């Protein structure tokens, strides 16, 4: 083992030892406080776990259902169906010709811009 490898090994051991000391001191400092409730404060009763779950999970779930119903209700009132079909949706060209591409003008000359894209880089 040459001196370079020995120095690297010593440096690795020093860093890992320092890391262990830092982690250990953080874990010891993170212990819970052992203080009593101050005299003027109330001492509340413990919360029932089912009541806690009902509040934490039930209220957001109920709000989500209400929002979903408010979004879907107008479509249901119009008679729309909310089922997914495997067929592709019909293509729609916004602002394009109503009868398809046959309405597009053909190019008049070679320099004409009508009839297609002419992108340049």
Question: What do these coordinates show?
Answer:
The chain is mostly helical. It is built from two helices and no strands. The longest helix is centred in the middle third of the chain and has 30 residues, at 49-78. It is flat, with a radius of gyration of 36 Å.
Helical content class: 40-55%
Average predicted local confidence, pLDDT:
79
- Give the N-to-C terminal Cα separation: 61 Å
The ordered H/E elements are HH
Q: Beta fraction of the residues? A: under 5%
Major beta-sheet overview: none
Derived from helix and strand composition plus strand pairing, the structural class reads: mainly alpha
Low-confidence stretches: none
Number of helical segments? 2
Number of strands: 0
Our Rg estimate from Cα atoms comes to 36 Å
Overall spatial form: flat
Describe what is shown at a glance.
It is built from 2 helices and no strands. By secondary structure, the chain is mainly alpha-helical.
Give the SSE map.
Blueprint lengths: L2 H27 L19 H30 L43
Descriptors:
mainly alpha; 47% helix; 2 helices; single chain; 121 residues; 0% strand; flat
